[in-house]
Amino acid sequence: MRFQSKNTFVSRLFVPFALATLAAAIHWGTPIAHAEEWIDPSQSAVFNAEGWEELSDGNGIKTWGKQVPGSSIVAFRGEGILDAPIAKAAQMLADTNRKAEWIHKCAEAKNIKTFSELDRIEYNRTLAPVIMKDRDFVYHAKVWLDMPKHQVRVLFKSIETPEVPEYSHAVRGKLMESRYTLTSIDEGKRTRAMVEVHADPAGAIPKWIVNLFQKSWPRNTLLGMQQQLMKPDVQEMALVKEFFEGKIKDAPYVMSPEWLGAHPIVR
Questions:
Q1: What is the pLDDT, as a whole number, of residue 84?
Q2: CA 169 to CA 30: how far, in whole Å?
């Protein structure tokens, strides 16, 4: 697989619209859909398939890319270590009001609808160069807490809702499938973070340019996460902390496929 590098100036000019929204899509929620509509993100057909090609390895961060059958948009993955416990990393991802502090070019992030403490729909707008319209996204996300694997897994997808019509000042992009996987390591002192995305900023941007600027997004995102977690006012997420301390064992927090199948909730 070859990733084109036709113009490094272009790659800097076109900010990674879709991928900057990846972290902004993280929400925490109980299921609101039938089991067949939402699967455990560890079962992703796109991200679990073979074909990943290593793109970079440096400063403790690795990145990969892969062609997705039937799509001209490349999927990307990044992995790095966060010097913080998993509950603190989870709180950083869940705090909508502070996402502009570490998500590249995030101009606006807000909750559209909250179904429960751990389930919401969110809107995000990402700044574009002056000559182009901003890109915005509307998405729904869910979380799985996995005690055996010591993981927090998040899957999110774009949705259409009359509550957020398309605006004239932005082009509506699409997150086909994206996920975050946080894994507690070093006896709970640190967290391994994996970010994966398959997203289309839409509009008239040639796909080779989309793939070119999205290529660097996983590394930049992980660097932003590391810097954000150094701030003393980023706290631990109580729910996640209590779960991994064994204080929370029942649904809705343990959202396994088995639990979803036994407790389908209709919209």
A1: 98
A2: 33
